[in-house]
Amino acid sequence: MVKVGIAGASGYTGLELIRLLVKHPEAQITALTSETYQGQRVADVFPSLAGSIDRDFSSLDPSAAEDCDILFLALPHTTAMNLVPGFLKGNCRVIDLSADFRLKSPQVFETWYSVPHNQRETLSQAVYGLPELHREQIRKARLIANPGCYPTSVILALAPLMTTDWVDLGSIVADSKSGVSGAGRKPSLTTQFAECNEAVSAYGLATHRHTPEIEQEISTLAGREVCITFSPHLMPMTRGLLSTVYINLVRDLTLGELDRYYREIYKNEPFVRILNPGAFANTHYVAHSNYCDIGLQIDVRNRRIILTSAIDNLVKGAAGQAVQNMNLMLGIDETTGLDSPGLFP
Amino acid sequence: MVKVGIAGASGYTGLELIRLLVKHPEAQITALTSETYQGQRVADVFPSLAGSIDRDFSSLDPSAAEDCDILFLALPHTTAMNLVPGFLKGNCRVIDLSADFRLKSPQVFETWYSVPHNQRETLSQAVYGLPELHREQIRKARLIANPGCYPTSVILALAPLMTTDWVDLGSIVADSKSGVSGAGRKPSLTTQFAECNEAVSAYGLATHRHTPEIEQEISTLAGREVCITFSPHLMPMTRGLLSTVYINLVRDLTLGELDRYYREIYKNEPFVRILNPGAFANTHYVAHSNYCDIGLQIDVRNRRIILTSAIDNLVKGAAGQAVQNMNLMLGIDETTGLDSPGLFP
Amino acid sequence: MVKVGIAGASGYTGLELIRLLVKHPEAQITALTSETYQGQRVADVFPSLAGSIDRDFSSLDPSAAEDCDILFLALPHTTAMNLVPGFLKGNCRVIDLSADFRLKSPQVFETWYSVPHNQRETLSQAVYGLPELHREQIRKARLIANPGCYPTSVILALAPLMTTDWVDLGSIVADSKSGVSGAGRKPSLTTQFAECNEAVSAYGLATHRHTPEIEQEISTLAGREVCITFSPHLMPMTRGLLSTVYINLVRDLTLGELDRYYREIYKNEPFVRILNPGAFANTHYVAHSNYCDIGLQIDVRNRRIILTSAIDNLVKGAAGQAVQNMNLMLGIDETTGLDSPGLFP
Amino acid sequence: MVKVGIAGASGYTGLELIRLLVKHPEAQITALTSETYQGQRVADVFPSLAGSIDRDFSSLDPSAAEDCDILFLALPHTTAMNLVPGFLKGNCRVIDLSADFRLKSPQVFETWYSVPHNQRETLSQAVYGLPELHREQIRKARLIANPGCYPTSVILALAPLMTTDWVDLGSIVADSKSGVSGAGRKPSLTTQFAECNEAVSAYGLATHRHTPEIEQEISTLAGREVCITFSPHLMPMTRGLLSTVYINLVRDLTLGELDRYYREIYKNEPFVRILNPGAFANTHYVAHSNYCDIGLQIDVRNRRIILTSAIDNLVKGAAGQAVQNMNLMLGIDETTGLDSPGLFP
């Protein structure tokens, strides 16, 4: 059994990691930290876990990594940054679910996050933890930068097209719709029930921090710099994230060709499902699962591809992907502990 | 008092018309038809209206228009088509909330609705009932084709740009998100609570029938044929419709310039609210009201305008706009009976 | 025009008061206070009100009442207590929506609210503002203690039975279900969307502070002390409150007799609707309205009456009832500004 | 591997059985019937299951049981009744999720279901499948009548008290709140999203068919006939069922005593969790799990016990309990395939 710890275990991402790891056949939870709930029983804070785990939350201290083979960090952005080098000193490997090590360029990080990146050496070792793109590097990594939820859905939708010459790379628009759990568990006015129920709204248009993360990955695939318009929206539901992605064709292409191409690209991916032609992605079908469903359409009149990509923001968009990365790092079956179907209804 | 009738009064659009008209100071409801509920008391079918109306639903017959000054038709598509010429024979004026008289071209109608338009003469008299574009014609019209909900939100967002030379008219993408009431009151699997709760999904991508309606109006404004990609999505909420509209700039433009321009264009419009720069539209703030809120943003990195446009699909997207049209036809204040603020929370 | 002020105008109750009063034909808002938003435009804080009001929020100061004929207090419990005597010194009348003046007995107040009541003289002048019970006193009152949302629904359901000898007064159970807006606008973990969506839960069983308020009013009607079990529950919806109330019969009674009796009792009440026999109350039909719908049933096998009582917690349960009280105090039609039907769907 | 079939596999209960059984380590699905979808791939009908199952729906025929060790029936009430005797002729054992074999008395069945029970001999062999009460009989049974969702929550809450002399058995009121999925997947107006969203309503008060089922089981425990008032309510959520149960004490009892007693009674039950004193049940914490959470409270002023009992209506209230019964019948660990924690948020 591998010993795993979760730092910041009382947020929604941390909680989802607990849920997945308590049933994981190869992992044993040895540490759960929470500043808010230190000293309290996990099952008292989260009654959903009663019967599944019998531990207390502890405070995060620098030695947290000593007793772990794998340490998951579900901490606020910029908190993880300065802790990771210390955690990596021993034998522990780290999967960081914050944004701190996702962007390869410290300059790009500073531009979008408004603070300098002061752990550049560690940054250079981090692997962007999207298994569909970086599986081999993930296996050998000591530090994984687990992708954001929006980037996971958008990159998986776009990746196959980035290596073709079928599309206009300057025309990409990603219009994403996320459930409220993506905003985290810290109480705020904007995530109060009465504020966001019966409400669909846009936020962070053209300025959201997940933009450079998407651009970094698709630019690498395309072999040149690609800029996109990324538009997040808040939906009145707890979980689920749907991205509708638009990109102009520069040649004629049939839906059948597109469908065959995507199926070929993703044929060995256990968690990517290409929908039947004519079907569009629906967050309901991936709820609580690690799947990413991708739907394909061509707007023939406008010579434009329309991709729909649905994930559960807390699973494939966060904790599930982190466990998938752990499985790869441990050399075990990538789907271990992650084989739940989507929960519908 | 003007005598008004509603044919098809037991669907959500019909019900919303009743709600608005029972409190309208200049209108008196003289007929409410419903094939499903004929002979039943309105307040027994809709207990929300108990105390507000004391009438029965009747069956629709060809003489329905005889006792009305204004007849609202909230009937299924293609049902209205053949009834309207008869209704117009007397003095009654008709506001048709179906799609049957919205498209000026019978060929375009047949292409998108898969049936021929067999009332071409009547069609030629119909006025597209978007007051912000066709106010003067509406005042004099005998037949109003009340706009669809999606077109209302998209056209109001795009209209000001159509008469400029700032944008690439071939680059328009409208990504729209609608509440479930837009699908009507007829029971179906896709609108069952357990199917669409906690679900965000796309449907009708590149094929939805509201596309030609949008294109007709913005092409007229632009003075040339404009094609758009229109993508409807279903949201887990009852009411509200948000359109996020993308269009490429062909010159530099600041957000301040854009804001001033939109405010100038809409300065006399009682139901269009331009949001503060930096604010994006939210369906919650227009709920149950006749407002259309428009938010403006420029994606400078990509030289692209992003418009957000929110309405209540049953009010400004249907019944409220129909009453606004009625007010214009009657020569009374356009806001009569429609001055409710958005209902938040 | 009567000059009205609202202290604490940026909570949900205050906001609902604004919504109702901006359209009230006899009232003119002259002051809106909010410590959180002082100096900000109301429509910037609540974009739903743009176009309906053009004012700023101000800070609450002791002279707030000087320029008002009626002052509504939507302040936290125990804050209102010490402010009211000062407000009453001039000609202003006060409608307090907190619990501070609802309980006639300072001892009972202290027992349930854990603080002493230190304005006993003012307390003795307060009138409990449930028009269906205390209409004549309300007309003449200078200080109204506006009822709580739960008590409004439970008292209106039970009141007619309290003056009969049909029931066992020791057997009353009120099981109430409320939407989340009843918990107020202050961010908290329990009212976060992701916590209370898809969740039905009980809270405050046998200990909720609305219990003595209900008992006070029904005991007065019964002419003897009546104790009840009151159980509040939190529902995954924004607005609406349903109480299901159980009381044992001590004689045989038919549903027809019960129905006729309730209709007789409430025949002149503009905001109480007795549902058809066999119909049960549904919060959806009273949404955004000032109605209280009451459904009647008899469990013949158990000789038990089951009452269902639905209100909108922010309207008849708070702001709407406060305006109803204001109308009575002003000697104008009780329904002025409150005649909206329930908003369905 | 045990061969299992599901008749009526395309309703919500059938779908939930598929979800649980595809991951069950001891079961192999060999037949899935659906009249609506026969001949279609399961994953085309339910995209959530893509990647988890590769089968078609078939039509139900009398030989359905021949190739199964265990046959689950998720058919409409009264359909199962006449099919079961045939299915039992071979070696197959049957778990019927309808109400047809739950009531021991054919007379009681006829009274509440309005049709005669015409399979009395088979009825006499059926075991009521609530493991907490009938575990030993279930192990040996050939026909299980799987309990209703409401009865499961109410019986588990009340059972411990039925064998004491602490309570007044004539005073029981069960006020239950269910998510919409409990009404099944067949489209109907009452379960349309726009009808039941933002709506809490009562239905079937004093007449619901689950009443005699509850009474049968608690009467058996009490050793005398017990009648209850049972009140179901519909909640705006997909899954989850909370019952709040009231019963008068006939002696003094502390919450501590009650807590110790319930913990003792349920100490070996893998799926019953007694909440900490002062905590009340919340459907969110049992979502998608087989747990029943029970909260305890004493209303001292009224000498009344208040129990709260939460389950997932489709799991412990239907499919999960059926799998639990299957595990018992197979002699394997009762929790096999059912050990998921509650899914929160």
Short summary:
By secondary structure, chain A is α/β, with parallel strands linked by helices. Chain A has helices at residues 12-22, 42-45, 79-87, 106-113, 120-125, 131-140, 149-162, 193-196, 211-222, 255-265, 315-330, and strands at residues 2-7, 27-33, 70-73, 93-96, 127-128, 143-145, 173-178, 201-202, 229-234, 241-248, 272-274, 292-299, 304-311. The first copy, chain A, is built from 11 helices and 13 strands.
What features would you highlight for this structure?
homotetramer, 345 residues, alpha/beta, Rossmann fold, Dihydrodipicolinate Reductase, domain 2, seven-stranded mixed sheet, six-stranded parallel sheet, 19% strand, globular
- Tell me the radius of gyration of chain A: 20 Å
Helical proportion of chain A, percent range: 25-40%
What is the top-level CATH class of the largest domain in chain A? Answer: Alpha Beta
Number of helices of chain A: 11
CATH fold type of the largest domain in chain A:
Dihydrodipicolinate Reductase, domain 2
Average residue-wise pLDDT of chain A: 97
Shape of chain A: globular
Distance between the termini of chain A: 34 Å
Would you report the number of β strands of chain A? Answer: 13
Sketch the topology of chain A as an H/E string, one letter per element. EHEHEHEHHEHEHEHEHEEHEEEH
